[in-house]
Amino acid sequence: MKITIDPHINVRVYNQVNPTSLETKGDAILMKIGELSKTAGVSVRSLRYYEEQGLITSTRLENGYRDYNSLMVEQVQTIQFYLSLGLTTKQIGGFLHCVMASEEAFCKEIMPVYRDKHKELSDQISLLSSIKSNLEERMAYILQQNPTMKEEANNDDPKSNRTGV
């Protein structure tokens, strides 16, 4: 399955929060971890991990419960977006504050991260292509040495109607 991300997408994600079901403090809408989890579409465990990594913040109540500002919904969804690009939470932490305060295009911290990730992916693709090529050579060699393997390989896969490698 190929996942395509539109490069022109604005990474700021907006979600509707039903303010009538949530506690308010001044102008801020507050929510418990379960409410944030449901609204943002991520697990409670992920939210705790993001907080541990310094990507999101909460206010601790006297009973130990976490209270989150409703703005955390957008922040969590932005984190999810960057994770889908293959970035680590450490990398995201290096520029998240900037993209939450401004647009991605104006955050100088992000381009080096994107370049590093692009190089890493290019290196991985190169390595995988080399491994694939080596496997194809080995398969061709085996079939050259023992042509009956070709028939056996096709018989092993009932869906395969191919006659070649």
What do you see in this structure?
The protein has 165 residues and is α+β, with helices and mostly antiparallel strands. 52% of the residues lie in helices and 8% in strands. β3 (59-60) and β4 form a beta hairpin. It is elongated and about 75 Å long. The relative contact order is 0.09. Mean pLDDT is 83; it is low at 12-22 and 161-165.
Spatial order of the strands in the main sheet?
Answer: 1-2-4-3
User: Which structural class should the secondary elements be placed in?
Assistant: alpha+beta
Counting H and I runs of at least 4 residues, what is the number of helices? 7
How helix-rich are the residues, as a percent range?
Answer: 40-55%
